[in-house]
């Protein structure tokens, strides 16, 4: 991986780079980070958009659910065109439209004890955006 930001990245992330104590090295750390977001619904939608916009280099999305009409009033990544589609896969496409320089790995899986270690092993950070306690407890174990 290149250890410098391109001129396009310098423009894209100029507001980050204007912050005190946030320099090119800081942005490169974001570009090198691997974040897993479990849940792409009401909480996960804005989290995923902000991670993509911030330039987090690798984002894995784990969500087995599909977009339903009742999701549309609070899950800002999705529209009526997405009804019936998997949330992780749909979110990935929209995130890449926002920032094509990142890598997004959608996993249309349900996370449970038998696959959690495999799915989460390479993550620097895991963001719990789930809506059920069994999964929250699993992620905290």
Task: Characterize the structure shown.
This protein is an alpha/beta fold and 141 residues long. The chain has helices at residues 7-12, 14-17, 24-32, 44-54, 87-98, 116-120, 133-140; strands at residues 34-38, 58-62, 103-107, 125-128. It has a 4-stranded parallel beta sheet with strand order 3-2-1-4, covered by helices on one side. It is globular. The model has no long low-confidence stretch (mean pLDDT 96).
Supply the key terms.
141 residues; alpha/beta; 4-stranded parallel β-sheet; 39% helix
Compact description:
The chain has 141 residues and is of the alpha/beta class. It has helices at residues 7-12, 14-17, 24-32, 44-54, 87-98, 116-120, 133-140; strands spanning 34-38, 58-62, 103-107, 125-128.
Secondary-structure blueprint:
Blueprint: H1 7-12, H2 14-17, H3 24-32, E1 34-38, H4 44-54, E2 58-62, H5 87-98, E3 103-107, H6 116-120, E4 125-128, H7 133-140
Parallel strand pairs: 1-2, 1-4, 2-3
Helix pairs in contact: 4-5
Termini Cα gap? 32 Å
How do the helices and strands follow one another from N- to C-terminus? HHHEHEHEHEH
Low confidence ranges: none
- Provide the β-strand percentage band: 5-15%
- Percent of residues in helices: 25-40%
User: What is the typical, i.e. mean, pLDDT?
Assistant: 96
Number of strands: 4
Q: Given the helix and strand composition, which structural class is it?
A: alpha/beta
Strand arrangement across the biggest beta sheet: 3-2-1-4
Describe the main β-sheet briefly. Answer: 4 strands, parallel
Shape: globular
Number of helical elements: 7
The radius of gyration over CA amounts to 16 Å
């Amino acid at each position: 991986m290149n250890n410098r930001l391109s001129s396009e990245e310098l423009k894209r992330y100029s507001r980050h780079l204007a912050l005190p104590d946030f320099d090119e090295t800081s942005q490169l750390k974001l570009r090198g980070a691997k974040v897993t977001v479990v849940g792409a619904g009401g909480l996960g939608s804005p989290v995923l958009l902000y991670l993509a916009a911030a330039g987090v280099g690798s984002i894995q999305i784990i969500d087995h659910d599909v977009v339903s009409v009742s999701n549309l009033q609070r899950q800002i990544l999705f529209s009526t065109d997405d009804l019936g589609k998997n949330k992780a896969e749909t979110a990935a496409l929209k995130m890449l439209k926002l920032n094509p320089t990142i890598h997004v790995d959608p996993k249309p899986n349900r996370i449970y004890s038998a696959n959690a270690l495999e799915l989460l092993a390479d993550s620097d950070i895991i963001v719990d955006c789930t809506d059920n306690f069994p999964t929250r407890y699993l992620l905290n174990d």
